Amino acid sequence: MKRAGFNQLGLPVMLLLPQLIIIAVFFYWPAVFAIYSSFYLQDPFGFGSTFVALENYTGLLSSAEYRKVAVFTVVFSLLVTFLSLSIALLLAVKADKVIRGARTYRTLLMWVYAVAPPVAGFMGVMMFNQGTGPITEFLALFGWEFKLGVNFNDTALAMVVVAAWNQIPVNFIFFLSGLQSIPQSVKEAAMIDNRSGVRRFWDVTFPLLAPTAFFLLVINITYSLFDTFGTVDTLVKGEPGNNPMTLVYKVYVDGFRGNDLGGSSAQSVILMVLVLLLTVFQFRLIDRRIHYT
Amino acid sequence: MAVMTDTDRTVARTGRPVRWSVVIDHAILIAGSLMMILPVFAVFISTSISDVEIYREGLNLSLGPHMAENFDKALFLKGGFTGEITGSSMLINSFILGIGFALGKILIGMTAAYAIVYFRLRFATFAFWIIFTTLLLPLEVRILPTYEVVQGLGLANTYTGLILPLVASATATFFFRQFFLSVPEELVEAARIDGAGPVKFFIDILVPLSRTMVAAIFIIMFVYGWNQYLWPTLITTDESLFTLVRGIKQIIQNLDGANVPEYGRALALAIIAILPPVLVVVIFQSWFVKGLVESDK
């Protein structure tokens, strides 16, 4: 709040009202509704619901299928995060270094930001298609019979590749802007102290990039958890079957295909808690320990 | 000019030797760029091949004669379950969603941030927390209950139901709050001394000051809105409201059912679906990067 603010009541309330109404109706109401219905068992034909306390939660946590999806989601998120962060970091370091064509490289490496995840998934289907996809044909040279949508691990690999590809631009942009904000004087001092580019990177540049990297870590985990819905949905062609799926995808499958409002809501609540923990982690650990000014 | 002697040439050669590290840097960057471009390029080129050929041989990097025809079909041929939607109607819906979402976010975010930053309100801190809690939970997490609520309000299959729930998070508000806090305090003091009220100050001083910020956030929000998939999939079942990105689902499901799937049309639609946001990001690159880096921090 500004010290020299205006002293009025009517106007600011009017200004705040649209925002407050929208989040009340489309955020708080659904969130409370989710918590409420996670304690109820919904009749699949719409005839009322019964209070079952924590049964939806215990049912989930003891379900082998849910655990399998949870494990897959963790592995998937870690792989996507690691792949896209490391590739983007490598590209950003190089793009920061070169003099010729720096602007062109920057454009070429970031435009994929605008490609929607489901469209990227569709392109992935074309690339990994059984029999005709260019990547499938390439892998066949090594005797790898890639079966998208049939083999669990193959489908999972395609998901990881497409999701990471889609996320590289964001990481690239943040790493590049982080690199460019390192003062010239620091770079020169490091140059005098150490001629080896690799040592200089790990001793000076990387620690200076750490705040950006940690911030991106959280962004990437959130991305892999939530924004990859479209990627997953298109790569399995809307047929989950035995294919790998993420937790968010399961919320959708159970809630809309299975009509299990209680179970799906319980899953939503578990995800909410997960996101809250991530955010707390972000604020506590990252902002306090690694911060340079 | 004198003829170059042998000694001169060696100097020239040793003065600018081939720096292998630079070559490797460029090789890595070129490989990275190709990795980003090739899949989309292959899809684009393959829109020029006939459906049968794509069905049999997959994506192709050589031009065929069918590109214009495929794009024409993608944009104007009536299709879908009801036989009434065309690519161009989905394109219009995508623009409505992208622009409507971006404008909604900016309008609501700017006014709310103005109220929080520039007024002495007793409940300002409370409002702040109420609003910023929404940053924590993306729509995907509370998707089913949101659907129930919007359905209950009778907003399914309307533009309002499509756009408003997406607007219900505070990203833009947070962004404008940060920006307003960085605006020098003296401005509002000077404005008050000159007798400007809060409305005049907002319209005549703050809005013009925020122009670049508004442009940056507009680009980010436009791309975000355009690319929405899960929510439009749930809330629009009426095909006349389908966006391009939402339509992708239908396109893929149709591919599996047909005898000779309409690959050419599907690929052309995919290209049309990514073209507007890609162009916006490339053309307004500096605003886009500024908005992205500053809004997320």
TrEMBL record, chain A:
Broad class of where this protein is predominantly found: membrane
Residue ranges occupied by any ABC transmembrane type-1 domain in the UniProt entry: 70-282
CDD domains: TM_PBP2
Signal peptide positions (record): none
Cell compartments where the protein resides: Cell inner membrane; Cell membrane
Chain segments annotated as coiled-coil in the UniProt record: none
Membrane topology: Multi-pass membrane protein
Pfam families recorded: BPD_transp_1 (PF00528)
Transmembrane feature ranges: 12-36, 69-93, 105-128, 156-179, 200-226, 266-286
InterPro entries registered for this protein in UniProt: MetI-like, MetI-like_sf, UgpAE/MalFG_permease
Record key words, sorted: Cell inner membrane, Cell membrane, Membrane, Transmembrane, Transmembrane helix, Transport
Keyword Transmembrane: yes
Keyword ATP-binding: no
Similarity remark: Belongs to the binding-protein-dependent transport system permease family.
Subunit comment: The complex is composed of two ATP-binding proteins (UgpC), two transmembrane proteins (UgpA and UgpE) and a solute-binding protein (UgpB).
Function statement: Part of the ABC transporter complex UgpBAEC involved in sn-glycerol-3-phosphate (G3P) import. Probably responsible for the translocation of the substrate across the membrane.
Protein name as annotated: sn-glycerol-3-phosphate transport system permease protein UgpA
Species assigned in the record: Hoeflea alexandrii
